[in-house]
Specification:
The protein is of the alpha/beta class and 123 residues long. The protein has 6 helices and 4 strands; from the N terminus they run H-H-H-E-H-E-H-E-E-H. It folds into 2 domains: 30 residues, no CATH class; 92 residues, Rossmann fold (3-Layer(aba) Sandwich), CATH 3.40.50.
């Protein structure tokens, strides 16, 4: 099995999120086209929440144009978010902020790790 195959197998295993495997995957991932599309879609938004933002992989580009807050349950992942980006502990199902306080919210690679995906979408 290839190195990337082993990373994907560890990442998508039957357990909950494997933070170490996720970080390794993101380090090898070239998602520049997808990131650029998300950045374009959020053009003009000034206050964005990155729900389940992990290490801030996507947030780094958004933070060049807007105020971004990463909401992430994993302390290990929150610790890797670059300096200057606001980080809050929390889960998609129960965001640690009031309703309608932000211009936009994004959640990439998140719902498969939620205990209650429908509640997360509603939130």
């Amino acid at each position: 099995m290839s190195a990337s195959g082993r990373v994907m197998q560890a990442f998508w295993g039957p357990e909950k999120l494997n933070s170490a495997a996720f970080v390794e995957l993101v380090d090898k991932l070239d998602a520049s086209a997808e990131v650029a599309a998300i950045v374009r879609a959020l053009d003009g938004m000034n206050d964005i929440v990155d729900v389940g933002g992990g290490t801030g992989f996507l947030t780094q580009e958004l933070a060049k144009r807007a105020r971004v807050t990463v909401v992430e349950p994993s302390a290990e992942q929150r610790a890797k978010v670059p300096a200057g980006i606001q980080v809050r502990a929390g889960r998609a199902e129960d965001l640690p902020m009031g309703d309608r306080l932000n211009d936009a919210a994004i959640a990439t690679w998140v719902l498969q790790y939620c205990d209650d995906p429908l509640r997360a979408i509603d939130e």
